[in-house]
Amino acid sequence: MKKILIFSAIFSFGVNAQDLVITNARIIDGTGRVIDSGSVVIDEGRIVSVSAGASTVIATARIDANGMTVMPGFIDAHRHIISGDAQIWFAEESTWNMQAYLDAGYTTLLEGGGRLPEIMELKRLIDSGELNGPRVITSARADPLQYNTEALARARIQELAQAGVEIIKASTTPNEKDILAILVDEARKYDLDVMVHAVTVPAMLAAVEAGAGKLVHTPHDSFLTAEEASVVAQANIETLSTIGFAVPTFDVYNDDNIPTFRDGNPWPEGILGTGSNAAGEKAVNARTLWDAGVVYGFGTDTNYSPVKGLSHELRALNLMFSPRDIIKLMGPNTAAFLDMEDEIGTLEPGKLADIVFIDGDPLELIFNLLQVKLVLKGGEIVADHRN
Length: 387
Fold this sequence. Notes:
The protein has 387 residues and is of the alpha/beta class. It is 31% helix and 22% strand. Helix 3 (150-163) packs parallel to helix 4 and helix 6 (226-234) packs across helix 8 (278-291).
């Protein structure tokens, strides 16, 4: 195993974010450019330059990547973070839970429809430095089924806007299109997007007609036509993957060798019991959306181990996408979904220095993304797996 050498007067998780230089790195910057051996210069938590060869910058801290791959920090734009009793979670689970995301390489998470006020408190703790973790983008739900009149729908959006939520999540069916349109209209008054939980093709098209700005799921229950995918592309609506939902996993420690759900629980009969072949439909529909020009990003829709969630979604994506596609999907496309493409998703001058060090080349084998050895968030070391 290669080791990273850090030459600095400060050698800890508190490396000064100013004047940091990464050298001797294979760089995958997320724009499509690959540098076999290069340097990244960071100042005040932001990238100053990304270039081939050695850097002559005199820096307070230097990281010799020793040939490892450096690439943008991972983003999960559909994650369920707080589970169970919130008071217990904050008191007993939040520290190790949020560190687990950093350890897996995640530097940004979008909560996929969080509870209030808990998700706002989590964001406050991380932003203030009281809790180490990826930056959290907040969302909360406004489902048409619950807020099913114009008055209720508008009042709910106003409530969420006052709470400071950054994006609205709404689950919908075609029959709820009119209420969804009201939610979208009210959200725009507060400069808020509505991301729609639309798991079927009819629901997806209804969400487009209602004016939704984002789609959370790749649809199943039928195969998506090229014409239907073009409707999404022409509306400039970003979409997230979450295609691992219907793909079984197998517990290597289970001698029965039976398929289980992605979180290890028994396989839900409903996924295949309705006549839908969701696993295949999601994967194929993902590629259809991509080929139509939809900005297709990364989300796991999971609430368990970040590493296992990442691994499982990669397994599903690997069926239809090349490693180069997946890196684009996980980086700039997901940043665009969050409207943060000027801040994260690629390694470019001016952007936040969210950087993951990978032991191996993910362009040769995408599962090398699981070999995370060092993570920087805003230029500071937040996870270290060198030993």
